[in-house]
Amino acid sequence: MDPKPSRARTIAGIILAAIGVALIFSPGAVADALARQPTNVGEAINLRASWGGSLLGIGLSVAFVRAWSPRWWIGVGVVMWLMLGIAVGRGVGFILDGAPDTMQWIWIVAEVVIAGACAAALRRRSR
Questions:
Q1: Domain, as residue range, for 56
Q2: What is the mean pLDDT of residues 3-23?
Q3: 51: in domain
């Protein structure tokens, strides 16, 4: 099995990631689609991270996760990209929405630590 993603899968993943980036920068559209406006900064940041960031991470997973064996390595790659996408969305929220609360800091630290641990495991595997 070729471990590299196909060109079509890479393009589809990049398209999904681009939509995720668009959602990160338009939390109002997400709130309108959900018919639920954020009532505080934390909720606005969560809209960016949960919807746009998750889609960014899914897109990056589709585009770049290889077909490793055993299959659980695929899960490690998916978790890494997903956590990274969510952390990017949350980070953009920190910058654009401002005033993140303690819980937002806990979430972003956890996301970065999990993504880093997955990246380290994948790097060790590739040696």
A1: 7-126
A2: 90
A3: yes
